[in-house]
Amino acid sequence: MGRRTDADGMGLNAMMVKSKGDSTTSDLFSDLLSPDQVAKRLKTYKPLSKPVWSDHKAKLIEKYLAFFVYITKHGTYIDGFAGPQSPEHPETWSAKRVLESRPRFLRNFFLCDLDSEKVNRLQALWESQPPKEKNESKRQCVVLHGDFNTRVDEILASGTITEKEAAFALLDQRTFECDWRTVEKLAQHKKTGNKIELFYFLAAKWLHRSLSGFKGDAARATGRGHRVDSATGLAYPADGSGGPGLHPGAGGSRAATGPWPWPGASAPAPGSAP
Questions:
Q1: For 216-272, how does the pLDDT look when each residue is reduced to its tens digit (9 = 90+)?
Q2: pLDDT digit string (tens) for 80-139?
Q3: pTM (whole model) above 0.85
Q4: Residue 94's closest CA among 105, 79, 73, 115?
Q5: Domain extent listing, the chain
């Protein structure tokens, strides 16, 4: 027991014999390709020409809203983070796809962004839209510069979104930009009938990594001029004004940076019917 016969030894030695002219590969793996052969078989792929997920998301929103207006025949579109994520790829821009979609039943648009350059792009996008066609309802757009978590109050106070007004809000944040209390305000705005439809982006794929990198606390954040979201504990700049305002645009559009009511608009009377 435990002895190795000559036959066993010969079998083992036979397995370890090197291939002729090859000092690295035994007969057992003689079918393996050489490094040069592997290199010749490798395929190279072209890099992605655009952000695929952003493109698919924009198409999904456009298609969803097409069915939305087929049913409602009207509506208000709110985009809290409306600027283009990839300006070099306008086809991935949700606000652009929605504004240019047909049929043009949506009649009110609120487009908000914190970035002044993106606000300029939003204004230019609206002003580039073709004029109203026969039998189409008049459309108007308000471009808002600032923190959507602050400016959402002005949108809801504008009187545009009544109990009977169909409304859709896109909250396409990057990770933490949209406070949960903002979601609550939109969800609770309408008291009867159909609520404002919400499309909320949650970065589940990298959320744990982003949370692990957050090291702030409420006292330090508020001491530096930040506000803290009570739901998530995350700090954001307290100043939502954003910077210099834009001049009112053409075609029923206006860019607003000051508090509500905006120039040329009137706030509903307290307690008045929607």
A1: 554 444 444 555 555 555 555 555 433 323 223 333 444 554 444 444 443 333 333
A2: 999 998 889 999 999 999 999 999 999 999 999 999 999 999 999 999 999 988 888 899
A3: no
A4: 79
A5: 52-207+241-256
CA distance 16 to 28: 8
Q: Determine the 3-state secondary structure of 171 from DSSP.
A: strand
Q: How far is CA 145 from CA 11, 184, 234, 243, in A?
A: 80, 22, 22, 8
Picking from 201, 199, 151, 150, the residue whose alpha carbon sits closest to that of residue 175 is 201
Nearest-angstrom CA–CA distance, 141 and 254: 7
For residue 98, the number of C-alpha atoms closer than 13 Å in the C-beta half-sphere is 31
- Calpha distance 130→108 (Å, rounded): 15
Cα angle value 246/250/256 (rounded, 5°): 30
What gap in Å lies between CA 39 and CA 41, rounded to an integer? 5
Q: Which residue has the tokens 């983070």?
A: 81
How are beta strands 226-228 and 235-237 bridged, if at all? antiparallel
- Written as six digits, the tokens of 88 are 């070099």
